[in-house]
Amino acid sequence: MTMVEASLTTLIEAIGQSADDLSIQASILAAIKELGGDNFVFVTFLADDDGGSVECYRFMTAAAPSWCRDYIEKKWWAIDPALRAIREHADSYQTDQVGFSRPAGPA
């Protein structure tokens, strides 16, 4: 096991042992930084039975609050490649298999 893998294992175990949202957020951000990232957004939502409208959102984020607002207002959840992969495949996948790309500019 490499040092990064060992560090990530420790951080992931810390997430499971966290007592509240703030400590979970801190552990996730530490893992993201270990991987070279600066922030993260974890989004859950409940859609109606027809999959049309989103009824409830929950964000855990270490990103600008405006990102969450834009995500909802611009309906990015409807074109989110990770959510599309989840809808299309019940099995697990790696993020590099999803086909993320950076947009050319602000939407």
Detailed description of the structure:
The chain has 107 residues and is α+β, with helices and mostly antiparallel strands. 43% of the residues lie in helices and 14% in strands. It has helices at residues 3-17, 21-34, 65-73, 81-88, and strands at 41-47, 54-61. It has a two-stranded antiparallel ribbon with strand order 1-2. The longest helix has 15 residues, at 3-17.
Brief synopsis:
The protein has 107 residues and is α+β, with helices and mostly antiparallel strands. The protein has helices at 3-17, 21-34, 65-73, 81-88; strands at 41-47, 54-61.
Protein traits:
2 strands; two-stranded antiparallel ribbon; alpha+beta
